[in-house]
Please model this.
Amino acid sequence: MPRSPQPLREPGAGRSPDRPAAWPLRVRTGMDLAEVARVEELMASHPGLRDTVFTPRELAYCDRRRRAGEHLAVRWAAKEAVLKSLGTGMGPRMEWTDIEVVNDRGGRPRVRLYGEVAAVAGSLGMQQIDISLTHSGGLAMAHAVLVCVLSPPDTAPDDTAPGPEPPTRTTPDTPDDPDPPPVPPDTAPARTTPTAEGDERHEA
Model:
């Protein structure tokens, strides 16, 4: 005896009316590669560049590492990777210190955003940003992954409305952030698991 045809289901049938549909997600990525020797040369020939590109917390962390140049270079690459994930490059009113690489208690690198960079990330609906760092053979590489929630059309934010206030920089007593939130060609950069601290498995 032939089987009875399966009944058609209305769109959304079987879904609880009290459970709204999930908002769509967008994953944005950015990657950058830096030559350690070039970064070290630039830092030596232009001392003021250190304070332009890196925050005091980043400098304190790198300067106490055995191969400080590698750690500076990988943070350089991390800042470029984050800007690429935003799709902006170095935009107006942005500063390199608006992007800061910190480390949690286990040594895992995290990213903190400030100022205009944080404002742009917020306008994209950023919910989380992760960073992966590595350095070997004279090269330093960073990969940034940005997870954004897209607003439904009927609740899309007004582009002319002011965005949320960007977070304010703070300088803690210790150079490493214990629990951060989820959130040059020539003389300057181009505009365009858990382990103990210092464990090279994190390459932080």
User: Anything to note?
Assistant: The mean pLDDT is 77. Helices lie at 36-45, 48-53, 56-63, 68-86, 115-123. DSSP finds five helices and five strands in the chain. The CA atoms of residues 7 and 157 lie 40 Å apart.
